[in-house]
Fold this protein.
Amino acid sequence: DSGVTQTPKHLITATGQRVTLRCSPRSGDLSVYWYQQSLDQGLQFLIQYYNGEERAKGNILERFSAQQFPDLHSELNLSSLELGDSALYFCASSVFVATGELFFGEGSRLTVL
Amino acid sequence: ELKVEQNPLFLSMQEGKNYTIYCNYSTTSDRLYWYRQDPGKSLESLFVLLSNGAVKQEGRLMASLDTKARLSTLHITAAVHDLSATYFCAVANAGGTSYGKLTFGQGTILTVHP
């Protein structure tokens, strides 16, 4: 158990809908990262937050957005969902500087029908 | 743009044999990570390599980093069935302060059979 908690574990929804994925980082970690894992794209970095502020952005679609709250939990919002958004979405956290080692949650598997 | 390539992508090994997975990356970085993923599960951190010449070992796995060659290796010694999983290398983008912005390789699916 990495200490990173993600909910929900599984989510099935229809095209055009909107979903929110939630992540609680390890105790004491200020940085939260979101990654997407799909068969065709592999593991891709989406976005990073540090202590409530966006720190880095990757290949995140405009239909997707994220935020980190004062209690350090983070949410990833996916809207106008398309079939191609079906993937495993991972949240990871780290001590900001240190080694940069990431600790991943169990992931949220999103299926868009 | 940083690119990370692993080979082989598929590796079928007999128990007791040795093999090496290679991870090449395209631009300068001095931070490289190896992760393990079991089917449908999370990513488990195996090794953190932070400098040229770094070598880390844990059980039957040993990882090394050559930043000049932009190459890391994951060596498997005397494979056992429990090592069957997908192994990813990931490289941190050089510069900036976002060390957690990792570029992952495609993954190597390792199957160890009797």
Remarks:
- The two ends of chain B are 41 Å apart (CA to CA).
